[in-house]
Amino acid sequence: MKRGNIRRESQPWPPAADRGNKKQKTGSLSSALGRNPLQKPLVEWGNLPYDVILHIFQYLTLVDRARASSVCQRWNEVFHIPELWRKFEFELNQPATSYLKSTHPDLIHQIIKKHGEHLQYVSFKVDSSTESAEAACDILSQLLNCSIKTLGLISTARPSFLNISKSHFASALTVVFVNSKSLSSIKIDGTPVDDPSLKVLVANNSDTLKLLKMSSCPHVSPAGILCLADQCHGLRELALNYYLLSDELLLALSSEKHVRLEHLRIDVVSENSGQTQFHTIKKSSWDTLVNHSPKVNIVMYFFLYEEEFDPFFREETPVTHLYFGRAVSKEMLGRIGLNCPRLVELVVCANGLQPLDEELIRIAERCKNLTAMGLGECEVSCSAFVEFVKMCGCRLTQLSIMEEVLIPDNKYNVEQIHSEVSKHLGRMWFPDMMPTWFTRPRS
């Protein structure tokens, strides 16, 4: 059957097969256990304590809970207990363009009408269609009596929220920002959030906000994010694009009033070679941040062209996790070995045909905290790689190296290298046949 011929028909909520079962006679634990029905039942299903039923319901999917609520009046009452409605993920997909499941409109209406005030942990997962993003905004606009603590807007494909009007999105977001008063975590990557929206967020949630993830938000300015950092002194985790990063922002995050930052993620992205100019952050600003938050993880994702790396790592930079999604030069990797002493994880997806022997040895010498390494389309001699592993030793807990990266020399070939590397790691190791990059740090 061709996938294009599959048609999805809307079904009412709850499913028709589950409605009208409320009058069915309930069973008992004794009959379920195969006891004689004439014997006195141990406990009737309908007479289980509320806390027991609630505990069981928490392990069921929403569909199964809805079906279970049809068993009897007591179970139906538990189905509507606020504790079961504090967390919900709205899945919004268009049948014409997506085969992913979607939250039924009747269920959405029921949640808004009966449980909107109970929602605390809310996320929206939308496909690439503008209609789905607009539907998410329509739902947000109706959460007038909510007390949301965490909010996530997730695009499963391309960022569909950027296709809707900025005013529509800002209006919907403002409803949540104004009414919640206790937001602690917000993930709004790839959305048209703007500076005025952030001001509303600060005005209503500055005392509670701890996590803000807003990479690829083109309508936010450096001044807008600086204003937020100046007021939200409890912020512990922040993710943003490099163009929003400034010396002033790092100093604001390092003020005496501000708690210690735990996680800073920075996406350094260029869509077209040579069209983006990247500024430099002063070493003194980085030093101030690390002195204030000595355990902070600083994660940088690079998607640049080789000629655009010039402003980076010319001075000591306290980055802990580095990911290069495009080709990176030998010179750049050499700078990392010299100027990134806090480095914990390094992933290089491509480098070209220039051997990285010296650069790898320098990284092993200078980056004493390195515990994870991944190499894709690069070249390293087998001898240099063995020396690198020998210098790092057992602290290398994750080592993902493509087999074609390793170049045989007069000392080792690819067949011999796994036993030598395994000896220095203290565990069995083999090169990878395909990329198996590590789990990204939480952001």
Structure description:
The chain has 443 residues and is an alpha/beta fold. The protein is built from 15 helices and 14 strands. The chain has helices at residues 29-32, 50-57, 62-68, 73-79, 105-115, 130-141, 166-180, 195-205, 222-231, 247-252, 283-292, 330-339, 357-366, 382-392, 414-425, and strands spanning 87-92, 121-126, 150-155, 185-187, 211-213, 237-241, 263-269, 297-303, 321-327, 345-350, 372-377, 380-381, 398-401, 406-407. The strands form two sheets. A twelve-stranded parallel sheet has the order 1-2-3-4-5-6-7-8-9-10-11-13. Helix 8 links the parallel strand 4 and strand 5. Helix 6 packs parallel to helix 7 (166-180). It is globular. The relative contact order is 0.05. The model is unreliable at 1-11, 16-33 and 439-443 (pLDDT under 50).
Task: Output the keywords.
443 residues; 33% helix; disordered C terminus; single chain; disordered N terminus; two-stranded parallel sheet; alpha/beta
Short description:
With 443 residues, the chain is of the alpha/beta class. It is 33% helix and 16% strand. It has helices spanning 29-32, 50-57, 62-68, 73-79, 105-115, 130-141, 166-180, 195-205, 222-231, 247-252, 283-292, 330-339, 357-366, 382-392, 414-425; strands at residues 87-92, 121-126, 150-155, 185-187, 211-213, 237-241, 263-269, 297-303, 321-327, 345-350, 372-377, 380-381, 398-401, 406-407.
